[in-house]
Amino acid sequence: MTDRRRELVDAKRSALVLIDVQQYFIEKLPLAERRPLVERLVWLLKVARQLRIPIVATAEDIARNGPLLPELSAELPKGTKVHDKMIFGLMADPAIRADIEATGRDTFVLIGLETDVCICHSALGIEAAGKRAVVIDDATLSPPPHHAHGLRRMADAGITVTSTKGIYFEWVRDLATMHRLRAEMNAPVPSSLTL
After folding, report:
1. What is the pLDDT of residue 40?
2. Could you say which of 12, 25, 148, 149 would form a disulfide bridge with 113 (CB–CB 3.0 to 4.6 Å)?
3. Tens of pLDDT along 140-161?
4. CA-to-CA distance for 115 and 145, rounded, in angstroms?
5. Whether the Cβ atoms of residue 87 and residue 93 lie closer than 8 Å to each other
6. In 10 A of CB 67, how many CB atoms?
7. 3-state secondary structure of 18
8. Is the pTM of this model over 0.90?
9. How many Å apart are CA 144 and CA 28, to the nearest integer?
């Protein structure tokens, strides 16, 4: 059997999972890192939509922590449910797990907050369910030093960790698709990202 962690991430097998990007959590982050993170998240949502990659979205305890940031909600495909997540690892919530299963995909690319808690717990739960979790290191964040701890914990568990640039090129794969996608998106690359 092939070790999927050694394979490139295939767009046709992927779903993008946006986790808990709410003002409450954003305000915990270093000021200089907030806007660049949100720009990368918005851009990844646009890429996923253009490539017809399903998106699953959560917000933690919406009544207490508020909704997803408006600029992210605006990028979700029409009809996308934002799950009110009351548990750290999303696979332990039956409704979210059902949405994960309903994508028909077996690779879940995780972006959002916070790396060492909800991202880590969710990635481990996805892997335990027999699926592949991929974590985007520059599209996830926790207040320092916890981001680094979370990435190390997941990498030690064998979870694929890559970057926004890395996942973009793994999804795109060739120049023709890249040029078509850039023209269709008609959106600038985030200033914090060099392709």
Report:
1. 97
2. 25
3. 999 999 999 999 999 999 999 9
4. 11
5. yes
6. 14
7. strand
8. yes
9. 10
